[in-house]
Input
Amino acid sequence: MNITSLRLDTNPLTAPRRAFNGAGGNCISRRIDLHQRRKTGPISCSASPPATVEQHTSDTPNRIGSLGNVSGVLGCQWGDEGKGKLVDILAKHFDIVARCQGGANAGHTIYNSEGKKFALHLVPSGILNEETTCVVGNGVVVHLPGFFKEIDGLESNGVSCKGRILVSDRAHLLFDFHQEVDGLREVELAKSFIGTTKRGIGPCYSSKVNRNGIRVSDLRHMDTFPQKLDLLLSDAASRFKDFKYTSEMLREEVERYKRFAERLEPFICDTVHFMNESILQKKKILVEGGQATMLDIDFGTYPFVTSSSPSAGGICTGLGIAPRALGDIIGVVKAYTTRVGSGPFPTELLDKTGDLLRFSGQEFGTTTGRPRRCGWLDIVALKYVCQINGFSSLNLTKLDVLSDLAEIQLGVSYKHSNGTPINSFPADLHVLEQSKVEYETMPGWRTDISSIRKYSDLPKAAREYVERIEELVGVPIHYIGVGPGRDALIYK
Output
């Protein structure tokens, strides 16, 4: 390994939680042949949660069986890390899979046992596991036309949704006009273009914070629903001159949502009560984060961020559960970095290597289809994210995409333009954009690893790459993705 820069700050006061033995930083790895099988059926909001899981021996390492009763999967970068696949794999070992924030801007691609591809945006990724109950929490904004379209698509492909999806009565509704306003706002911003998905997420959260939003529970009161919708639409018309609001539009939307309300009623639930009762009964709960921490409204590269908190804190506020209930939080990180839309990207590659990563990794947005910007793995950003979330482990995805490269670089530190070190991930975008990234260069392995299923069978250079990341960020990598399929996962 050719070291071209100094290591990151290793001050124990700033380093994230570690799980290593000895000075060499070798990851502790226990392998117990144990995993869980559940025997319960789907649940309704009024029913008790499913019975506790059984355990039986298998060839699966105990990385899954040892996870806490309430565990989470969160993104470490700017989204698109492959969270859905891990959630899908873990879901069969959990009673409940819950979404806590975001909306249809979170595109998760997963595959069933026959290799069929499903692109989900609102429905939690656990839906492919027939005994898993899926919860859409109070922190999610719900676009009902898109929600029902997903359900219709799933059911037309043999995936049963009846009695298996619970939608919080506190969740806010995202209307079509929110999407229209999203586009108008981007035009208005012009040079400060943020690059949203134009799915209406920001305007819907704005309605929520302005306290004139409409919640799922309001669908049960169609006598007052028209007045609330009129207030929302009138506000949008006063704000954007190109938004045309008419009484006919209001009438049509009210009639449309009367039909939606009837269809949604079996899904509506007090999910705060449901989740807390499930915790008391020691049910296994998996929380699926949307987007990623580098898009967090507070901790991301503001203003080039999403409108919610896709970090560990968002789990509690988006589901109404106490911080002390949280167990293991797994961070999902690509073996390289991608970003969609505008915003700083210190390790971005604007050359043929970036193009190679984009096409080899099929880096085109699940939600928008937009090509993703590609670059080397940013250790500074990853360490920052690990500190914020307190990850117990990481899932390194798409390691196979790097297989064609003769050399691989890790962005290990930032420096100011005058050469002085930057000791933390900067909030000031001017500082971030002007910073110089210091890299370590590591050898590539130049061989296909997509069929490998044991860590010890990986080429030496691939193992060195994995272990160097662990050493730099201080968090063990327990899961390594080497392909898109469910089985293309190495347990370390």
